[in-house]
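Input/output pair, single chain:
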Amino acid sequence: MPKKKTKTKAKKKKSTAKKIIIVESPTKCKTIKGFLSNDYALISSRGHIKDLPKSMLGVDIENNFKPRYIKIRGKAKLIREIVTACKNAREIFLAPDPDREGEAIAQHLAEELNPNGQTVKRALFYEITPEHVRNALAHTTTINENLVNAHKARRILDRIVGYYTSPLLWSIIKSGLSAGRVQSVALRLVCEREQEISAFTPTPYWTADAEFVSQSKPPFSAGLFQINGENRKIMSVDELKRLQGLLVSGTQFSVTSYRVTNPKRMPPPPFITSTLQQEASKRFKYPARKTMFIAQSLYEGVHLPQGRIGLITYMRTDSTRVNSKALGELRQYISGKYGEEYCSKSTREFKDRKGAQGGHEAIRPTKITLEPDTAKPFLTDEQFRIYTLVFNRYVASQMAPASYKKKEAIVSYQDVDFKSEEQKPLFLGYQLVSGDVVDKGFVPDMNVGEPATLNTIEFTEKHTEPSPRYTEATLIKKLEENGIGRPSTYAHILQTLFDRGYATKQAGKIKASELGMQVYDIIIPRFSNIFEVNYTAKMEKRLDQIEIGNEPWQQVVKEFYDPFIITLNKTKQEAEEIKESITEKVNKNCPKCHQPLVVRWGRYGKFLACSGFPDCKYSENLEIETSDKKCPKCGRALIIRHGKFGKFLACSGYPDCRYTENIPHDAPCPMCNGEMIIVNTRRGKMYKCKKCDFTTFYAPVHEKCPKCGKGMVMKRGKVSCPACDIKHKKK
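Output:
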């Protein structure tokens, strides 16, 4: 009997041992769990589990740049849980994202698991669908050392630049700033565009738009095309006056050219990371970071009636390639939904840009039968927008080209030519889905040599303009065209510029800030080669070579480090001199020690500080915002100052008088009509009544509630009554 019990126990233990799949995201866990049997257990690593330490370089320069990876703070407990869960696993599948970052996560997980004797397999999930996941688990691979090394090299290069260059900025400008290997190149592009705009001198020019009548045909419009056979505008006042005298109503022109063509428009390829970010920026004004967040949620899985499923393939890619099976399904879908004539005659293949890795497919829907309108009830508005973009772009890529009828006529008089164009669609083709149909202009049927009479003409003065500031879309396009960064880094690069205060967005355009320009002026002249567009692009190519096993990562790092450290040491010696050269002086002395005041940068922007710092720590606001209130202690004016949690009122007699108070809000208390003050907290602005202590995070407004007569607040873009809200909650 005892032996029988032992056997039963052993059997039970064996049957409960599961196959463990480790992914980064808890959301991905939920999706995958939904279409696998109970034999599998899903665990999330919640991103990276190891990284270089924050408090030190973490790279042994003398030992061939060996990195010192440590467990990320707060992840030790999670790692123990993963190791414990995997202890008796039948099989372990490491399935982080299929890219350099994911491969590094898989490597670090394997390092923690291998000491316990488990054998691990690498599973690559390019889409989160039942068929694909099961296929990936059936056809596992091993961790790609070349990918790990490429990630290692990039991480070490970025750490070396950040660790050594950022302190330079701290000593010269202020603490909290950073320089980065790719980030500083992006900043360079933004700042150099700003310099172009500042240096640009507008030049006036004139255009001419006219209406012509040809025999008994309807009138048509035409624009100035050529002067003396040269395609140009009117560039001088003298030429303008000459043409105004020459081209008057009734002047007889002659048709010198007339042609009809049938141009075709070809569809664009499916999205890659950069083009998706660009299109979402153009269409919806989404920042790149937001687009990637939404795309990640679509990739990881959405709840549908048939279960949870990933709607799009992996969203970090630079290849337009699509597998033949998916293309076959797509072409069947197009023929069935729109008709054979709307499907391209043969499977269309798109050429990747030079340097594209091609390891991942283009971004496409995982199920071509799951149309956006069908999925819409189960998506947020933002998810629906991005999914529709991806779906329509993918469908359009294999549709027939759009064809047009284009008419073009040129009418001439003496040395002046005007051109008229018409473009009308004949067959929509892929534009039936993409919606970018062109329908413009009108040109009547004409014959060369027939007369055309000038009816009216209008001259318009304009001015040449500099190259426009980058938008997120155009900056990403510039980075991609120059081979700077990778699909996974574009959003992070841009966000860092905004987070550091190096750039701001104005009407959707990226403008270099004063701080950004100052960082540029310090870094770029001294590290011009390292933070140069072509140099950074070459470094990206070398990282790609490491990825395919053609270059040893240590050699690539060494060839970067050696010239970098020489430049760094030279700049360190000049730090005080640089600081002195950029220090802005004002004609004012410190009220405490009478030494000159100078302009410094702080956490909240520029301020005036004593040049005798650190012996004298006096400081004051650079631009004083006044108020109409007086200090109740000494009678002097109260001014607006900036503190850790925002603005507050302080006595202008500081440091003799240290009185402070909160800034009052313009609307009264909704409850008692008393004075409201603004209290800045870690959670944001809070509004507090001085009379009844009512507090709210929503700004009080002057409107009264039609139900109870109390005051209202602005809550999530709508006016709301807090008194009625409190009554409703009590009920």
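Residues 1-15 have pLDDT under 50 and may be disordered. The chain has six domains: 17-143, 152-200+467-577, 204-266+402-463, 273-397, 584-642, 676-730.
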